[in-house]
């Protein structure tokens, strides 16, 4: 059983999805604490459905309409995203706004050390991930109709303000490290390095790789996508080199040479080479901000757990990371020059 009316969905698909075949079954994917995601089986193949959570939501969160618009814009220019199928803004169909996209088959890796991959091949998987980030940042947002997808002005200043508000809206505890980040971040925002389409949650478990190689077949989970500072986007990926291993994609403490994984310096050099940059200044500031943003996301999950509206069985486990994440964020701020 799913948590919505499958018969109502099937009727909508017959009327709205070109060449829709009868719906056979619906299977909810594990994980996905933000926008619940389902695999739809039909007699003609598979689709993926992403919907907003049920219940009261924070302002601007869970914007699946934006996800659909984004993938509809970049799929035609060849960036690897699932083919968009249809958007439903009528909440009476399943109880929430949702969209459908094609089901992309392949491999997803949850562990940043890639234990499923031979050591000699792991560097290629990381290289492909970095190259796709660079490719995304090279797309002209105006050329694909996304010139108004983000607000003008200093992206990072707005992001600090936004995530502070998001954190405050769902705050349940007083965490000293978070309070220090809230005070320090807005006073030290770097000058914006450029403007591009950014994913906002670019990491290895949001990629689908080919079954037989390191090619990236699809980048998933575009909820946080916008127009903004590409360095913030890459820094979110690079941050996993300093994240503890309680985060599955974290690489802190891993013997990278023994694991066959590029070092942080090598990852930065590859991104710089692909984007024509000489260096990435203020990287640890971006690390501090991105961890702060992750704290805000996890805090939102914790509030939904308390309210009984969390969408994943793993939500309770996720909120246990809240305090350790806050400490990592403040440690990165200290490296970037923050003082007590």
TrEMBL record:
Pfam families, alphabetized = APH
| Alphabetic keyword roster | Transferase
Keyword check for Lipoprotein, yes or no: no
GO molecular function, a single term? transferase activity
InterPro entries reported for this sequence: ACAD10-like, ACAD10_11_N, Aminoglycoside_PTrfase, Kinase-like_dom_sf
Domain Aminoglycoside phosphotransferase intervals? 26-249
Q: Which domain of life is it from?
A: Bacteria
* Membrane in keyword set: no
Q: What is this protein called?
A: Putative aminoglycoside phosphotransferase
Upper lineage: Bacteria, Pseudomonadati, Pseudomonadota, Betaproteobacteria, Burkholderiales
């Amino acid at each position: 059983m799913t948590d919505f009316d499958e018969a109502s969905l099937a009727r909508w698909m017959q009327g709205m999805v070109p060449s829709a075949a009868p719906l056979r079954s619906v299977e909810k994917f594990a994980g996905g604490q933000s926008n619940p995601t389902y695999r739809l089986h039909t007699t003609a193949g598979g689709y993926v459905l992403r919907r907003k959570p049920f219940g009261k939501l924070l302002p601007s969160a869970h914007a699946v309409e934006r996800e659909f618009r984004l993938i509809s814009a970049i799929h035609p220019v060849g960036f690897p995203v699932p083919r968009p199928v249809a958007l439903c803004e009528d909440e009476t169909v399943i109880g929430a706004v949702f969209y459908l996209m094609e089901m992309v088959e392949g491999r997803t890796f949850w562990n940043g050390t890639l234990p499923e991959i031979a050591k000699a091949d792991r560097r290629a998987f990381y290289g492909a991930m970095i190259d796709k980030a660079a490719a995304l940042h090279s797309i002209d947002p105006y050329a694909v109709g996304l010139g108004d997808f983000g607000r003008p002005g200093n992206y990072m200043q707005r992001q600090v303000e936004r995530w502070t508000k998001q954190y405050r809206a769902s705050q349940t505890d007083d965490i000293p490290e978070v309070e220090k980040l809230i005070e320090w971040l807005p006073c030290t925002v770097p000058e914006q390095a450029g403007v591009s389409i950014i994913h906002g949650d670019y990491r290895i478990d949001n990629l689908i790789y080919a079954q037989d190689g390191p090619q990236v077949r699809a980048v998933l989970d575009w909820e946080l996508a916008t127009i903004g500072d590409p360095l913030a986007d890459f820094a979110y990926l690079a941050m996993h080199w300093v994240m503890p291993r309680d985060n599955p994609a974290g690489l802190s403490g891993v013997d990278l040479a023994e694991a066959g994984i590029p070092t942080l310096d090598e990852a930065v050099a590859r991104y710089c080479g692909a984007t024509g940059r000489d260096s990435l200044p203020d990287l640890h500031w971006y690390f501090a901000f991105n961890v702060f943003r992750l704290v805000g996301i996890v805090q939102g999950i914790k509030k939904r757990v308390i309210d009984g509206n969390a969408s994943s069985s793993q939500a309770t486990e996720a909120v246990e990371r809240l305090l350790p994440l806050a400490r990592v964020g403040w440690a990165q701020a200290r490296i970037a020059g923050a003082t007590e």
